[in-house]
Amino acid sequence: MLRLHDTASREVQPLTLRDEGKVSMYVCGPTVYDLPHLGHGRFTLVFDVLRRYLIFSGFEVTYVSNITDIDDNIIRRAEREGRSEAEVAKEFEGHWWDAMDALGVLRPDHTPHATEFVGSMITTISQLLERGVAYATSDGVYLETTKVEGYGLLAGQPLDSLRAGARVEENDEKRSPLDFALWKAAKPGEPLWDAPFGGGRPGWHTECVVMSLELLGEGFDLHGGGLDLKFPHHENERAQAVALGKDFAHHWTHNGWVMVEGEKMSKSLGNFTSLTDLLASADPRSYRLLVLRSHYRAPIEVTTETIADAERGLARLDSLARRLHLTSPVAPLRRSDLNGDAAVIESFCALMDDDLQTPQALALIFDLVSSANTALDEGDQERATMLGETAVGLCAALGLSVKAAHLEIDADTLALAEARDKARDEKDFAAADALRDQLTALGWVVEDTPDGTGLRREE
Ligand SMILES: [Zn+2]
C-alpha cells in the first residue's frame, strides 16, 4: 500500500482508505482571474501523477478539484475591464483547461464551481452561527478560531507565532487576528447573494470545505494542494469541519514550492512569465518530466535551462520509442495491463509506494532505456522490446507520454537520407558512405532499416 507524508502528523504514513479499493481525493483548484502560473502547473502535475499511480495500482479514484469563480481579484478585474465577473471567470477558466490539456493532466471527475454551491455554504455558515463558533460583524461573518479544538494542527506552529504573523486588518471587530471570514458582506456595486446574515458572498475557505464534504462525504481520504495552501486555507477548511463536528479529510498532502533562481519571474531573465508562456515555448511534456525529477515535497527550479534539460531527457525516451516503434497509451494504465519485466515493475512500485520517490523511479526508467538500446545494438530485438515496453509503460504510469513519431527531422536532413537511399539502391556505396558521414557530422546516428535509412539522435 502507498505510504504518503501526512501534513497533520508530519509523518510518512500508509494511506488508509474509507472504502476498500477506492480513493477519494480533493485538490484545491484555481481562482480564475489571470493566466495559470508555474505553481499551478506543479501542483496539478503532482496530483495527476498521484492519481494515475493510484489507478496503476488498481484503485478506483474519485478526484474532485474546484474552480473559484467569485472572489476579490475577479471582481477587481471585472471592474477594471468593464465586464461581468462571469465573463472574466469564463475566459480564464478556458485558459486553465487549455493548460491542463497541454500538460496531459486528467480532467477531474467533478469540478465544482463556487457559485453553484452558495446555497450549501449559507446553510453551513448558519449552522456555525447556531453552534456559537461564528459571529457577525459589520463586514461579514467570522469563525472564532479560539473555539476550535486543535486549531493550528496543519500550520504546525504555536498559536502565538501564528497570531503574530497574521495580517493586520482594518476590522477591529475581529475577536482574534486568526479569525477568518466565512461570509463577506457586499460593498456597493459588488455581486451578492441573499442570506439570513446579510447580502454578500462566501469566503474562499468555506467554499472548499462545503464542496469537498458534499461531493466526497465525511471522512474522505485525501486533501491536497500546494504548500502555500497549508496555512491558512487548509487550516481554516479543517477548522470549520471540526466546528461542525464533521469528520474531514483523513490525510493531508502538500507539494513544494516553485523557485525561479530567487528572482522575480521575468522573460528578460530567461524565465517563464506564466504556465501558458512555458507551454507555448517548450514541449509541454518537459514540465512533467521536470516535476518528476524532484521529490514532490522538495522545491523545484523552473528556468529555460532546467526545461531544456528535461527536453533532452524526453528526446532519449522518444528516440528509444522510435527505434522500437512504441507509443505510450494516453489513458491511465493499470499495472495488470502492463506486460514487461516483472522485477523492474516491482522495484518501480516499491519506490512509488514509499512517498512517491519519483526521481529514483525515473532513474530506473532511464536505466531501462540504456539497456534496451544496448540490446538493440547487440541485435537482441526480443530483449530490447521487452525492456522498451517496460520503460514506456512505466512512463505511462506517471502520465509521461512517449512518442515514436515525436522527433522532427528537418527537410535538409531528410533530403540527405533520401539521397543515401538512392545511392544504395544504385549500389553506389562510396556516395552512400559519404552521405552517411555528412549525416553523422550533423549529429545523427544512421541505421540501416528495412525501410531505408533510419535516423535517431545520439543517446
Ligand atoms: Zn481549497
Structure description:
The protein is α/β, with parallel strands linked by helices and 459 residues long. The chain has three domains: 3-258, Rossmann fold (3-Layer(aba) Sandwich), CATH 3.40.50.620; 282-397, Up-down Bundle (Four Helix Bundle (Hemerythrin (Met), subunit A)), CATH 1.20.120; 411-457. Helices cover 46% and strands 14% of the residues. Strand 13 and strand 14 (452-457) form a beta hairpin. Helix 9 (285-292) packs across helix 10 and helix 10 crosses helix 13. The radius of gyration is 26 Å and the shape is elongated. Zinc ion is lined by residues 28, 208, 233.
Q: What number is the mean pLDDT?
A: 92
Helix content: 40-55%
In the CATH classification, which architecture of the largest domain applies?
3-Layer(aba) Sandwich
Are there runs of 5+ residues with pLDDT below 50, and where?
A: 264-268
Number of domains: 3
InterPro entries: Cys-tRNA-ligase, Cys-tRNA-synt_Ia_DALR, Cys-tRNA/MSH_ligase, CysS_C, Rossmann-like_a/b/a_fold, tRNA-synt_1_cat_dom, tRNAsynth_Ia_anticodon-bd
Pfam family, one: tRNA-synt_1e
Organism: freshwater metagenome
EC number: 6.1.1.16
Q: Keywords, please?
A:
459 residues, Four Helix Bundle (Hemerythrin (Met), subunit A), Rossmann fold, 15 helices, alpha/beta, 4-stranded antiparallel beta sheet, 4-stranded parallel beta sheet, binds zinc ion, elongated, 14 strands
Produce a short descriptive summary:
The chain is of the alpha/beta class and 459 residues long. It has helices at 38-56, 72-81, 85-103, 118-130, 159-165, 204-216, 230-244, 275-281, 285-292, 304-324, 342-353, 358-377, 381-397, 411-425, 429-441; strands at residues 3-6, 11-14, 22-27, 60-65, 134-137, 140-143, 180-185, 200-202, 222-226, 252-255, 258-259, 300-301, 444-449, 452-457. Residues 28, 208, 233 line the site of zinc ion.
